[in-house]
């Protein structure tokens, strides 16, 4: 069970790092900075780091478990960022999507655990 925890923790860190890389690349693209600018290079380095973290996640969980966990963490983070930074409302459809993601995690844990 501890191994599964490590896998999900690495999947969570991977999602956070990818989102940080996305934000950095978005900043570079929106401001017209070249590909060799600090934000663009930082985004690429964060993506590379996410690949390393993903490797460690895959050592502890199946690809299906890791993929669903990564997707769920990304979904939650994007909803939170949208609501807090962009004033977007989380409506019933988003809540249902989050619920489905959480349910899929529960189902995968029970099948594999």
TrEMBL record:
InterPro entries: EmrE-like
Record's keyword terms, sorted: Membrane, Transmembrane, Transmembrane helix
Top-level taxon of origin: Bacteria
Signal peptide (UniProt feature, chain positions): none
Protein name, as recorded: 4-amino-4-deoxy-L-arabinose-phosphoundecaprenol flippase subunit ArnF
Gene3D superfamilies found in the cross-reference section: 1.10.3730.20
Spans traversing the lipid bilayer: 38-56, 68-86, 92-111
UniProt keyword Signal, yes or no: no
Organism, scientific name: Albidovulum aquaemixtae
């Amino acid at each position: 069970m501890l191994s599964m925890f490590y896998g999900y923790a690495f999947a969570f860190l991977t999602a956070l790092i990818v989102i940080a890389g996305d934000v950095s690349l978005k900043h570079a693209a929106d401001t017209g900075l070249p590909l060799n600018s600090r934000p663009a290079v930082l985004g690429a380095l964060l993506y590379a780091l996410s690949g390393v973290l993903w490797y460690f996640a895959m050592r502890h969980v199946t690809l299906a478990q890791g993929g669903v966990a990564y997707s769920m963490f990304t979904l939650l983070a994007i909803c939170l960022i949208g609501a807090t930074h962009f004033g977007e409302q989380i409506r019933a459809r988003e809540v249902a999507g989050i619920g489905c993601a959480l349910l899929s995690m529960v189902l995968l844990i029970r099948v594999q655990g």
